Amino acid sequence: MRQSADFIAQRRRDKKNTILLTGGTGFLGSHLAVELLRRGHFVILLCRSKDGLSAEQRMRQLFDWFDLRPGGNYRVVEGQITQPRFGLDEQTYAYLKDHTDEIFHCVAETAFSQTKQSQLEAVNVEGARHALQLAVESGCYYFHHMSTAYVAGQRHGRCEEEYVPQEHFHNAYEQTKHVAEGLVLETCRANGIRANIYRPSIVYGDSRTGKSLLFNAFYAPMKLAHYLQTIWERDFAENEGRHATSMGVTRSEDGVLQVSIRIERAEMGVVNLIPIDFLTQATLAIMEDTLDGGIFHIVNDRQDTLDELLVYMRRIINIDGIRLVGPGHLTAEPRNALEKLVAGYLDVYQPYFYDDRTFETTKAQRILARHRITCPRMDDALFSRCIRYAIEVDWGRQLFQYQQGE
Amino acid sequence: MTLQEIKGIAGKCVHYAMCRIDFLGTGVCASGTQSGYVSYYPQGRMEIAAALADEVIPVTEKLIDIVESCTLCGKCDKQCYFVRELRPIKVMRALKEHIASHLEQGLAVVQPQTDDVLERLQAVTGAEWSSNDPAILVAYSVDRFPLAERCMPRYVTMPASTVEVQEIIKIARAADLPYTARGNGASSFAVALGDGIIIDLTRMKQLEVDPKTWTATIGPGVTAFDLQREANRHGMRAGVVEPAACVCANLISTNMHSLFSHAYGMGADHCSDAQFVDPEGELYTMNDPRQSNPFYFNKEGAGPNGICTQARIRLYPMTEDESAILVPFPTLQEAAAMAREVGFRRLGFAAGILGADYVSAFMAPTNETAEQLKQLFREKMGIEYALLVLGDKYDLAAVKDMAEVTIDEKLIRTMMLSMPQLHGEQGLAMLADLPSGGTLYKTLFDAEMMPLIEAALSPSPDNIMPAVDEDMREFYRDLYRRPEMTDLVWLNMYRILSSRTGRGRPFFGMVMYMPFDEPDLIVELCEQLGAVADKHGLRNDFGYLIPIDFGKRAALEYDFYHDHTNPEEREHARAAADEAAETIDRYMKKMNGRSAAVVPFQGLCRKENLLYPEPAQ
Ligand SMILES: Cc1cc2nc3c(=O)[nH]c(=O)nc-3n(C[C@H](O)[C@H](O)[C@H](O)COP(=O)(O)OP(=O)(O)OC[C@H]3O[C@@H](n4cnc5c(N)ncnc54)[C@H](O)[C@@H]3O)c2cc1C
Ligand code: SF4
Question: What is the ipTM metric for this complex?
Fold first, then answer.
């Protein structure tokens, strides 16, 4: 090992460990970065420029969003995770090599679509390779890798907090994240670098404020429902519902839209959802307490049923007639146009509607219990908080404009 | 504004000559139609402004006349904004201010010297129609091809008849001066430039349709737009291409190939006879028994033997039930397989694969909206290519049957009349933001979804207004109320949108004929050309792929774009053009005998020469 456990513990305690965090502008990365900064670590943030904003400008925009007035304990480096040495010039890369003690690798491409295969490979696999290359070339002694509980792939039942070679996956996202884990473990082992792998389940916004930066996964079905509601309501207001009715959408006396949309799921289908604040606290607690490396599931010990979520959704979305049905229903009676639309979108999530994977949490739990960190339960109020925020910021489109106008 | 200040606008004119045709129903610059020379058209005035700013030309009496004859009517502003988002009116105003101040300061007004050649030319054409005035010459001195340098001719002459052309050629021979025929100068390959006499043929506008023989007899000044309009008036259609291109020039220089070539062919297919004035000033026709094979193909592209002064162009029937369909595809291979099938079965009267770049440039009112639309198509919906087929209801029913998803004319109209919110918050972008299997279009463009799309988009010409400059809004609303603006058959026949391609910058397209049964080779060549352009930091994109001769071969265009006002980029474009030519050459050798690159000036050769060239020994 490059450094003794005592040395690492001491450095962390004294906040003398410089952490390079990749993906500082991402959903998970930004939350972790902000928490690390709040706790006084020195963080080098590796991120991209985008939409005409430099990496530095994007980070500042995010600090505002977090209401963080950062001190001098950070530096932003604009780089590309998909390129060797992050595409940096000699001097900047040398700076990273000279200063990096620990790496928090948070960059990920989370698209599920098969057509994103090359992008998924480039970011999740090659990106990890490039982060590891820096770990090897620098004096880095600890590599923290943000993975996903779903590296378990097409397994059923209980999944351990271990690296289990796996061949079958539901999508390229799961597969590339699994490959990356293998790379991390192998490279770190060969080079005397300790490694932590964090495996969260499906992450949504902040349980206290409802705020989020990303509106996929958990949010996707709500976003589609809200869009349909907006369109149909406008159609009733402006065209007497001409288009809506021709697709079988009607409006009841009290103004509720009536549709007939069946969504197929396993009987008693469940999902494992965790809020971002829980993930942040849990990850940092594990980081601070571990000196020897390990793999940790950061999941909810209480899974939410899809039926419960639908009930919460109905309170916010003014649409009646969305039903969850058991397997076989849709083949018995063919899909109508709206069902095809919904199916087209939810297709990528289909495996998760039949999910029976559960996640062992012994190792993570040992640490979280010590820190008294528990995962908040999803309920009606929390659900509304999150979706209302999503609507307020127009599912992310007005994220920063909203911030400014606030 | 000073000339220096408006040079940025003037220099951006791409010389596609769209201001010479009335493609928007605004009318054409009156002084241009009256005086004929390019200098009296908006395009010419833009060039004059740039040349004055660079002190390339002096102020002459002619120049003053050119500037003063502009009435600031604003027609060119609408036309040029439509195709390139330029505002030439600012240039026209600045020119007027510049001349007023020049005269006020009592600065010199130059009178060019006449000479023997000029006098002889004027004796043939009349004094008005031949000139050596720098203000006239300068509008004929440039082209946007990156390899072209400014080339100032000595004279410009505008003959009115074949006899005058013959006389001019004899004068040139006697004075040992080179001459260059010119249509509207829009070829963009620097081929209409010359340092001797420019013979501007645009006064020769003879145009007679003969319904009995399904032909039109045209002079070399007749544009594609003129011919199409006249043919349509007789219930017929011409297989023409770029609207501002003179048909004779187009035929000779680039075979007049387009999506129509799928049914109407190209090169010699278009033409039943043509008349030429040879370099001795003598007349001959294609069907002249004394001529050696007029379909002769010259691999070196030596140019036609003379100037075409008349051509008899074939016309085709139209039916009441014509419409269009787009078939979207995520890959070129898939699109090519279907296009080939459409070729084999001869479905429709026009067919071809367009890249997302073209489709969005054509559909969107501005460059910005085109970029957004392209992103929506490509990144969100997974549409990289679309096969466009124009045909009657039987053709289109067959195409629909063959395709998994199609976008019909109603949906296209809905989308065109929903810019810019199509990709905005309440439009399709919202749906496109949602995750899907990557081929979102398959779900969204299912016929059953049409009510949802209409409800989401609320198509109307009013929608377009916010996308354009404030003073253009009403004009755009009224323009898009006209049904032809969203009618794909009309838009293809008159092709008024293609000059929008690369709106930000001019492009040069490379055309190659390829074996259609080797789609991987086509893809590979596109990738190689793309790599050449990428290396030089040039924007580049697939242009089109058209089935030719029953889908046995395909015409492939790949485009490079460059900012010609940026010297560094121009340098890169030059190097890239050379390297691209080498790449194409390599492929042509590799495909020995199975296809060819477009060799310029072979228009009247039979297409078989290009599609099935003799293999090298
Ligand atoms: C945006 C754009 C898209 C285009 N797309 C296509 C396309 O899809 N298919 C296609 O075929 N072409 C295409 N072209 C090319 C264009 O149509 C041809 O280059 C056409 O020749 C331009 O017409 P012009 O009158 O401007 O010709 P000019 O530029 O004036 O002349 C072209 C050449 O022909 C010679 N010439 C002109 N008139 C005569 C004559 N009467 N006799 C002998 N030689 C003559 C000139 O010396 C010159 O060498 C495109 C051009 C543009 C700008
Ligand atoms: S503004 Fe001047 S240049 Fe433009 S069309 Fe009118 S007269 Fe011609």
Answer: 0.80
